[in-house]
From TrEMBL:
One of its GO terms (biological process) is chromosome segregation. Residues 13-100 form the ParB-like N-terminal domain. One of its GO terms (cellular component) is chromosome. Signal peptide: none annotated. Gene3D superfamilies: 1.10.10.2830, 3.90.1530.30. This is ParB Domain Protein Nuclease. InterPro entries: Chromosome_partition/occlusion, ParB/Sulfiredoxin_sf, ParB_N. It comes from Acetobacter pomorum DM001.
Length: 272
């Protein structure tokens, strides 16, 4: 059994912008990016339609928020659009999938979209959840035919299953108000630093987020925590410190080679 993909009701149609409602979006519109698209539209027009669905006598935007904003900036009063038949969950899934496929997503944005996609996918297919709602013996027999969230997302979006699981885990480790506060900071764009943030307690995450907003020049979570905690800066390791560290990591065979290498020097010292 495969996920049903909502199908267009019509080919591309022209819809007045005044009839299209944007609603809440998972990702804020980048006005600068929209301005670049608007400049292109003024010269070449709208080349890619947006996706909408009917909502009473109006239309609700599914995908293409930046294009829609660009049309407004360009002074174009109508949008080319594809009208899609989709319920609330399917519409959110379409919005998420369009954004996930974009290269400019930050690691935090990607984690947010994938986590939301997991939530929606499992709402549409509760039987794929661990301990999910399997209402009959027949469903028990069919559940193996429905791919898990990770399998379905990897196939549809062309992403590595491991990276999907890691992104969803990252999203869950950072508390919601912190995710919101750091969304437009340098921290949202660094996967390694987000991982470091996710290992901290919610209280420390909030302190780090406040620090990042106030002092954006410090771009290392460990250093931020050091400053928040008032701990002294670690001294730069000397050559001796590095040699000792390497010695402690070395196995017996490597240590024997090192000893053999030093032995002539040691005898020379004894002779003097």
């Amino acid at each position: 059994m495969n996920v049903q993909v909502p199908q267009p009701l019509l080919s591309v149609v022209s819809i007045p912008l005044s009839q299209i409602d944007v609603g809440e979006r998972l990702r804020a519109i980048d006005v600068d990016a929209a301005a670049v698209i608007a400049a292109s539209m003024q010269e070449q027009g709208q080349r890619t339609p947006i996706e909408v669905r009917k909502s009473g006598k109006r239309y609700q935007l599914i995908a293409g928020a930046h294009r829609l904003r660009a049309l407004e900036l360009a002074g174009i009063e109508t949008a080319f659009a594809v009208v899609v038949k989709a319920d609330d969950l399917e519409a959110q899934l379409l919005e998420i999938d369009e954004n996930i496929c974009r290269r400019e997503l930050s690691p935090l944005d990607r984690a947010t979209f994938l986590a939301k996609r997991k939530e929606i996918y499992e709402a549409l297919h509760p039987e794929t959840k661990r301990g999910g709602d399997r209402r009959s013996d027949q469903m028990d027999n069919l559940v193996h035919l429905i791919p898990s969230f990770t399998e379905a997302s990897a196939q549809k979006l062309g992403l590595d299953a491991r990276s999907i699981r890691r992104s969803v885990a990252l999203y869950s480790k950072i508390v919601p108000d912190v995710r919101e506060k750091i969304a437009n900071t340098w921290l949202a764009g660094s996967g390694a630093q987000l991982d470091a943030l996710g290992r901290e307690t919610p209280d420390m995450q909030r302190q780090v987020a406040d620090f990042v907003v106030q002092w954006p020049g410090v771009k290392n979570v460990a250093e931020i925590i050091r400053q928040i905690s008032g701990k002294p800066r670690k001294k730069k390791p000397t050559l001796y410190d590095k040699l000792v560290a390497l010695w402690e990591k070395a196995d017996s065979a490597t240590r024997m080679k090192f000893h053999t290498y030093l032995e002539p020097e040691m005898h020379m010292g004894d002779a003097e």
